[in-house]
Amino acid sequence: MELAVEAAALGKRYGRTWALRDCALAVPAGRIAALVGPNGAGKTTLLHLVVGLLKPDAGEVRVFGRPPREALPDIGFVAQDTPLYRDFTAAELVTMGGKLNRRRWDAALARDRLGLLGIPPDKPVGKLSGGQRAQVALALALAKRPRLLLLDEPIASLDPLARREFMQTLMGAVAESETTVLLSSHLLADLERSCDHLIVLQRSRVRLAGPVDELLAGFRTLTGPQAGSAAIDGVAEVVRASHTERQSTLLVRRGDGPIDPLWTEHEVTLEDVVLAHLAEAEPRVPASAWEVTA
Ligand SMILES: Nc1ncnc2c1ncn2[C@@H]1O[C@H](COP(=O)(O)OP(=O)(O)OP(=O)(O)O)[C@@H](O)[C@H]1O
Question: What is the ipTM of this complex?
Fold first, then answer.
């Protein structure tokens, strides 16, 4: 199995604070991988390490078996907030992309895609809507015909319809080209429909990672009587529990044995699994840290 992204003991720190630590990852080629986690978890840092914009302070990351700098011609990257030269039109950006990527540039693909989406070719991109700009950035990244496409929160500013259209465009494009995608997002419901690999970061560490179908198959929600959890001891490991006066709801990592019929088993969604793993309280900053000496 070819790995598109592989990281071992990868770490990056700013001053004394680790933005990413002990990160071990293996994203197989051809996957659409979602990178999720709370604000400040280290998602952008990880993407910047993968594209070679940052150098690791520990460990290493490889892209198709090579250091990121060597793999750069095979990587397409759309940074957070899709930065584009705002005074240029989409048509000018497509031409400029051709000059910057002489080895491989599919201008026809970008033009066809933008034409289909009704993006005006002759309007400065600064005057397009946020969704249209995101589509321009995606079309430019795809025109590079990358083997790995990195997208940092590409749909954050889009309305629900534009989000769906963006994800459909993305999935259609990568299915045709067998591109591997690593995309960070907070929008779990959108990811469930389109991603087949998941990486959850929390407080600079990988909390959970693997193929979505395997992760979902490994967890169940159980509902049953309060204080009945002894009945599942040894059969299922409780990841998160919530209780009302009458019943308990448990998210469990499923073992092999049968579950006591006291409990009703339900399948889980991606959102259930991610939120249960992130539910640990985030550390708070004490109010005293905000005091500024006059
Ligand atoms: N240039 C920098 N200098 C100092 N600290 C930084 C810098 N960039 C990021 N950090 C810190 O590194 C940590 C990880 O930041 P990062 O931007 O990777 O998180 P993120 O998961 O992408 O967050 P978000 O979802 O808010 O975009 C945070 O604690 C952040 O404050």
Answer: 0.97
